Automatic annotation (TrEMBL), chains A, B:
One of its GO terms (molecular function) is DNA-binding transcription factor activity. The gene is thuR. It comes from Pelagibacterium lentulum. It comes from the Bacteria. This is LacI family transcriptional regulator. The lineage of its organism: Bacteria, Pseudomonadati, Pseudomonadota, Alphaproteobacteria, Hyphomicrobiales. SUPFAM superfamilies: lambda repressor-like DNA-binding domains, Periplasmic binding protein-like I. CDD domains: HTH_LacI, PBP1_AglR-like.
Amino acid sequence: MAKTGIRQLADHLGISIGTVSRALNDRPDVNPETRKRVLAAATDFGYVPNQSGRSLRQGTTNTIGFIVESGTDGSGSNDNFFLEVFGAIQHVFARHNLDLVVLPCSTDEDPLHHLQRMVSRRIVDALIISATRRKDPRISFLADAHIPFITLGRSSTPGPHPWLDLDFEGVANTAMDRLVAKGHRRIALGLPSNDINLGFLLLDGYKAGLERQEIAFDPALVLRAASSEQGGYQLAHEVLSMGNRPTAVLLVHELMAIGLYRRMNDAGLEPGKDLSVIGFRESPLSRFLIPALTCFKLSLRDLGQALGESLLATIPAYAEHYPQGTVRRVWPMELVPGDSDGPPRM
Amino acid sequence: MAKTGIRQLADHLGISIGTVSRALNDRPDVNPETRKRVLAAATDFGYVPNQSGRSLRQGTTNTIGFIVESGTDGSGSNDNFFLEVFGAIQHVFARHNLDLVVLPCSTDEDPLHHLQRMVSRRIVDALIISATRRKDPRISFLADAHIPFITLGRSSTPGPHPWLDLDFEGVANTAMDRLVAKGHRRIALGLPSNDINLGFLLLDGYKAGLERQEIAFDPALVLRAASSEQGGYQLAHEVLSMGNRPTAVLLVHELMAIGLYRRMNDAGLEPGKDLSVIGFRESPLSRFLIPALTCFKLSLRDLGQALGESLLATIPAYAEHYPQGTVRRVWPMELVPGDSDGPPRM
């Protein structure tokens, strides 16, 4: 029965070809029971619609790609973040019979080269790209290729595309105000070790916070480390070795807090008392750490939904459902006070 | 120049069409400098090979899918695990101009339904599926559909497919021997709350370990919780509330240790002294936790490489390079002693 067609399925089930087609295509206007029967029959009869053929005829694949970084370097990039965002995007895409595929770019490979290959494979209709760099050639490549895309992250590379990005400047400003109000004056900043754009934004916010508080900027307090437990351990080591030691530190990634806590413990010091720490994003981790990490929260579900909808808003076939135009939005984050950032020791 | 073809590119560069084609297809037999020139020219001239057309002609997409679970339930599935495995698989696939795409299955959706849709989209030539269940209908579906696949995880659903799986029984046996040797007799087991197959394997190993040590199995010591920080917190709460409290616990996921440590700290108790803990997989986390978590390590790079190669070994076009046949292999894990599992308090 390998050659079972949609007509045979419809005959077998005693329903119209149109209903079978709508059920197979996950359209919303099909009774759930009918859909179940159609899918069961399609499986039993070995019916598989030819997506490659469809794709040539319609010029679409009905899949949208999300490019993330993979790798074997143990850099600790936090993909629990991504899995939750994926779930929310899929929820949006499911309304339109679209599927999300994730395209991991190995850290061994040039991100532009990877993107070009993915585009040449024609497996997706549109793209979400993340981990934007200060200058990001992927943006102009996609714009030139007329492929709809949205970036999770800003860049100084101009382009007509929509983007969403977390409010790194706001986080740094709020953290600086909070630490200064508690009496801190020497505040270190832990930045990523690569040229990802968010590092520049965090530094901007940090400088703005210092200026508002009339504290001179000291480049020696800007440290760089991997966004991982190991990076946090090394950063703490560096802080503890400094002559005029800072009394507080703002970290670009919450995973770093685990290593920092460990290094302080090894030195017989207490986070939140001997060195105040503010992490970045609230995660289950931050809440269960001892002491609980002061950090910033956002709804990953809302962010994922906005990413999905903002992308569809720029694709003609879906724009009527999403009249928001070209979204360019800084996503706010809310302070979650913990026990990791007390006043400096006298 | 939107209609630039491969001939125009070859003319422009003054090289043969064959070389251009090999460069564009990432074949190994092209000088790296030439490849760079070809790719640059292809980008400049807006050349995009029509993958959909190729796919119809050759019957292949040159992409292989890896199905993982996504979701917005914060269940803490640990995908740092996956990103490292992906990197290693990509390394294998790159030898053959194959790309890895990740197909996240939302926790809202039935995994079989998701798989059927992915297959019907024809975006991949072969599949890697993970999080296998005790009975897993995806296995018979893929076998019936004649799609090459490998599972990361065993199942009681039979099938002719290759699989790799971590040595859950071995981990449980080693942990039990170690804890009993330290004087523990009442040892709890923290299992996942769903019907993922690894929970059954871990329970088998736990029971075998008890039997060898001539300790009676007590079902009250088998606890179930989410594989997350929150799950570990709840599990610790349950353990601390027990009348005849166990003196040690083996956890199915290392993330649970964070919540367990927190709950013990809240109760004024010390992990490793008041309750001994052995985690599952060694990760940067385990090393930096205080106290360091006793756990088990494996090379994710080696595991990913074996997954990729074992899959290709079952695909006719690649089998000559991988003569290992149908691989069905339990992957060993090695004890990493930490400070979290001292002897019981007298």
